Amino acid sequence: MSSYFHPFILPFCIGTLVLFVIIAVKFYRWITTLDRKQKKNVWMSLLTVRVFPALWRIVKEIVKEVLLHVNITRYNWRMGYMHRSIALGWFLLIVTGFVETLFHFRGGGHLPWLGIFFRFFVRDYTYGISRVWADVMDLLLLYVLSGVSIAIFKSIYSRVVGIRKNTKLRWFDICLRYSLWLIFPMRLLSESCTAALTGNGGFLTQGIGDMLPTEFAQVMEVPFWTAYSTCLCVFFVLFPFSRYMHIFTEPLLIVFRSLGVRESSQPTGYTRMELNACSRCGICIDGCPLDKELKINDIQGVYLLRDVRHGLPHRNATENCLMCDQCVVDCPVGIEITEIRKQERNKGALDTHDNYRFLDSIQSFNAIGRIAYFGGCMSHLTPGVTESMKKIFDAVGQKYWMMDEDKTICCGRPLLQQGFIAQAAELRRKNAHLIVESHAQYLVTSCPICYQSFKKEYNLPIKVIHHTEYLAALIRLGKLKPHKTGLKVAYHDPCELGRGCNIYDEPREVLQAVAELARVQKEREHSICCGHSLGNTALDVEKQDKVRDAALRNLKADHPDLIATACPMCKKAFQRDRYTTVKDIAELIAEQL
Amino acid sequence: MDFGFTISKPRSIEPTEAGKEQLRLLEEQVPTFRRCMNCGGCTATCSAGHFINFNIRKVHNLYRWGQYKELDEELQKCMLCGKCTLVCPRGVNLRSLIIHLRKALNKDHLSNDFQHFIRNNNR
What we know:
The complex is a heterodimer. By secondary structure, chain A is mainly alpha-helical. Chain A has 4 domains: 198 residues, no CATH class; 80 residues, Alpha-helical ferredoxin (Fumarate Reductase Iron-sulfur Protein, Chain B, domain 2), CATH 1.10.1060; 117 residues, Rossmann fold; 109 residues, Rossmann fold. Helices cover 57% and strands 5% of the residues of chain A. Chain A is built from 27 helices and 8 strands. In chain A, the strands form 2 sheets. Chain A has a 4-stranded parallel beta sheet with strand order 2-1-3-4. By secondary structure, chain B is an all-alpha fold. Chain B contains 7 helices and no strands. About 6% of the residues of chain B have low confidence. Classes of the chains: A mainly alpha, B mainly alpha. Chains A and B meet through loops of A and helix 5, helix 6 and helix 7 of B.
């Protein structure tokens, strides 16, 4: 057995040991710092029948995302190829090397590093089936090298993989990137040297080996293998502290996400997992309207996650965000960036209690058999929307109770978005009390912000519907028969309704009943935020208007007669542009009754 | 004797008290703060103002004059719904102003910041 040892394997062995110790410590700390609700979710999934679908999801997700990188490929196939070739290629290289060793030694019992340095130690492996093994290994190495070369091109010119900008990296990450890039050429060179001396290489290494002079190979064989081992050692020891930690964190994140763990209002171990699972691929920079229109390039999801993870100052990254969720939709790892931003905002937000005693004066209303209608704060500034909804209710003979006829209690979402968690909960209690007391059967709301709040944060005993859903149902059942006009209308997907609540089809269905839909280039989950989102407090009006102009350019490309939206906030934002006619869907329907 | 009305308490503005440093910090964080022309649009549309006598214009002027007493509690009544920002004809970023005023006025803010520092730097 001693013939299978050489001092150059020491860096690799030490590096691997250190790597596994660090990973184990990190994982242990994250898992033990999950909060009570998250732990309960894990046990509930593990101890009930839910464990079977969860296990299936885990296996499926890990193969799809960690190895095949399906989501990135969907975003851009060249970028997908780059990530997949390095991840899948390296994984297969390790597995195939291991299997090859097992095959050669007829089962186990061999030394653990032999799989990595097989060609150096098994020098007489040149007969029969071993040729096939060598060719397979070379093919895999070539696959990885193709990915590495794309990565090198990408670092110079990011459009190679179809993204506008590379992520700005810390110098530490840059150094590690070089050590990662060096690993595979080093392996190629050292295997080629050995192949030149022994003839045990595959099509690639033997090809290069045959070109090398024998003297050169004799001198350089051990130095190259040492360099290869050292590169591995440097990378293994340092990568848990760099962005490459995502390699091991992403599977862990997938496991816990599949077991039903979600981000909670305070940072927990799960948050650490999400922070470490970011590979800083830079896809979130690509879609961010603040980067595109305002050239604000230090606040995107990737930078927030980086700065929170490494404890760098990040006040700007925390505050300056529209919370339009574009990055959350685009993120190939599925990190809840907006939730993490809310947690960070809450750290400075000073939760106080009992601020809204004055709201107790508002009385509920006996609304049995009626629909409760909640206009929302913003609809008070666009009275056309609430008036149209009232007209529609009357037209179909639906009795309703407008909850906020003259006095509004905010739904609490604006406070929550700014990180005022306790205050938002107080408003939610007041509103929920009003709604439950009224015994209304349904709650219709005109404002997507309130809609998302009522739906996701309230736990109401009654069904919450947005007015576009309500109108779609009325039209489908034939209760409402608006006249068709010849107008060409471009529909703007509000962030909170579309990306927030996945409602894309109902508004379009309603619009098609009265008008013709114009083509919009970026729509549905890629629609551009109107810029005046309540999630942001750092931008001034002039800057918000720039984002809005980008949204308008996108909507007006097909020369529509007017722009329709389903959010009073977006309507108000578009109205500020005097060359734009914008109407709410409810207004369009009410006009055509 | 009760006449059914009183004269208002004597009120004086102390320029030395009107923490210039704090005002400067606020103006740095919310540059649009200077644009206010006291039109009162924000107060007219305020959701909280429909229930009680909550006057954001007054609050921000009192802060400007350095009269910090009870302002903090007053500011907590804001629901942050954003109507004031939308109606403001001068484009003052009122929501940002309110959040920064809250932070500036809260006495525990310093210690909170410190906690934040500790949390970020020791893990």
